[in-house]
Write a structure and sequence with these properties.
It is found in: Membrane. The structure is a single chain. About 50% of the residues lie in helices and about 10% in strands. It is built from 17 helices and 13 strands. Strands 2-3-9-6-4 form a 5-stranded mixed β-sheet. The protein has a 3-stranded antiparallel β-sheet with strand order 1-11-12, with no helix packed on it. A 3-stranded antiparallel β-sheet has the order 5-13-10. A hairpin with a 2-residue loop joins β7 and β8.
């Protein structure tokens, strides 16, 4: 027997005894914690497969419904390979969001950071996240929304809607994605829609997105592997644009450089490294394109089945057009946008029932006690936004699409007959903090106001110019990202509404 073998067999019993002793100590300590009830599932994978099983986006899903029924709104599980506390409790969700960086921090699976980049705003925490977010907020300032982005949103909306042909069947989801991608590509890197380089980037981005929502298997032939390759291609493209701008800045001087897009703004006003800029731009392209396009597709889906809501929308937008016709104006301005009050109710209801963002990934930085339950330091925490949005104790008849619930502090009153819910009660809790479609706290979505502007302007021109209906049955599913399996096929008819 060699010396190494002798040491191995001599030390093995000691190591085993030490491990058993540690396990006993852990088990002795655990009973002092009052963990939420729940089921940890299978070793390592836990209950992840059941949690991620596709289901209708307008429901909590069978997994959540069963677990809430059995364990309550706060329960423990093993998800994404980690011990997890799942929250369908509006109070705990708000508590988590408000204590970002103090008691909790963002903690997405490594696969997300691997494909979006370690400098992506989605996965960053602390000072670097605050810095990146400040850059985004400066570029998406209220002034820029009013003076520049509103015009861009309307121009790109009309480019898409005017391309629709009478009685043809097409994917509303693809059209919404075309609109938001072209808008973001223009405002991030000044890429014009229809140009060869724009279309090439879009093709690579579609492949990239398929990998983001797929299983993180970095094996030949998988969607994740193809997405990593597309990510590399996209970053090389962005870096090429950066080099062009940098050369232009050297030749013309930094102060004379235009900053009409995000890339120009970042190069002129930040000290970010090349890698940081690449990940920032990719993450904003992802965030600005994907969620907004899904929200627009959801609005098209909900509205086609709600004639009374459509009628009221058309009345609101006709009034805006008639007022502009008298003044001789054609383009929308900020005052027009602020008049779209019922449209904002439609947007809120679309986000509530459609649940574009279903849950968030957080981690406990300290031992936390909430409502008598202990959340141990290092445990994952999942605030489930969709479960709160569909909670009947917060929203009456939560599975009905009823924009009126957002009027007059949630009380329809006499206006209920104008909504598609046929007068169903639609009160919501007085504490509207429970509604968090754009997150909350220090990580509140930097593009939330742009997203609402996009939806409002798109709805404005859609309801004034088209009637539409589903060409084939389809409905939104959570995969876990919301998607229409058939692409939401619709058939449109042009209408002419004279002011």
């Amino acid at each position: 027997m060699s010396e190494m073998e002798f040491l191995f067999f001599f030390l093995l019993p000691s190591v085993l005894l030490a491990l058993i002793f540690v396990e006993i100590l852990i088990k002795r300590k655990l009973p002092t914690l009052n963990l939420p009830p729940g089921n940890m599932g299978l070793p390592f994978i836990g209950e992840t497969l059941g949690y991620l099983k596709p289901y209708s986006a307008t429901t909590m899903g069978e997994f959540m419904e069963q677990h809430i029924s059995r364990f309550g709104k706060i329960y423990k599980s093993n998800l994404f390979g980690e011990r997890t506390v799942v929250s369908a409790d509006s109070g705990l969700n708000l508590f988590i969001l408000q204590n970002e960086g103090k008691l909790f921090e963002c903690s997405y699976p490594r696969s997300i950071g691997g494909i979006l980049g370690k400098w992506s705003m989605l996965v960053l925490v602390g000072d670097m996240h605050r810095h990146m977010r400040t850059i985004s907020l400066n570029f998406l300032s209220h002034k820029r929304l009013r003076t520049h982005l509103l015009k861009e949103v309307e121009r790109h909306t009309l480019l898409v809607l005017n391309s629709w042909k009478e009685n043809c069947t097409f994917s509303a989801q693809d059209e919404a994605k075309k609109f938001t991608f072209n808008l973001m590509a223009k405002n991030i890197m000044s890429l014009d829609p229809g140009e060869q380089e724009t279309e090439h980037l879009k093709k690579e981005y579609v492949t990239f997105m398929k990998g983001v929502v797929s299983a993180p298997l970095n094996l030949p032939g998988t969607a994740y592997r193809r997405a990593l390759k597309s990510r590399s291609t996209i970053l090389k493209f962005i870096e090429g644009k950066m080099n062009e701008r940098t050369l232009k800045m050297k030749n013309n001087g930094r102060e004379d450089t235009e900053e009409d897009d995000l890339l120009g703004w970042v190069l002129k006003h930040s000290n970010l490294s090349t890698e940081q800029i690449l990940d920032l731009i990719l993450s904003l392209l992802f965030a600005g394109h994907e969620t907004s396009s899904v929200a627009i597709a959801l609005a098209i889906y909900f509205l086609q089945d709600c004639p009374l809501t459509l009628q009221r929308l058309r009345e609101e937008h006709l009034a805006i057009v008639r007022a502009k016709h008298k003044s001789g104006e054609r383009e929308l301005n900020w005052n027009d946008y602020k008049k779209m009050e019922f449209t904002q109710c439609v947007i809120s209801e679309t986000l509530r029932l459609g649940n574009v963002v279903r849950f968030l990934h957080r981690k406990a930085l300290k031992d936390v006690r909430y409502k008598g339950y202990d959340i141990p330091r290092g445990w994952k925490v999942l605030p489930v936004v969709a479960a709160v949005n569909l909670d009947p104790s917060i929203f009456d008849h939560p599975h009905l699409f009823n924009p009126c619930r957002w009027q007059n502090n949630g009380k329809c009153g006499s206006s209920s007959s104008s909504c598609c819910s046929s007068g169903a009660a639609s009160n919501i809790t007085n504490n509207n903090n429970c509604f968090t479609p754009f997150g909350g706290g220090p990580r509140l979505c930097a593009g939330s106001e742009l997203a609402k502007l996009e939806m409002a302007v798109f709805i404005h021109h859609l309801v004034l110019n088209y009637h539409w209906q589903l060409a084939d049955f389809d409905q939104p599913f959570a995969f876990p990202f919301v998607d229409f399996p058939k692409g939401l096929p619709i058939r449109v008819q042009r209408q002419i509404l004279v002011p």
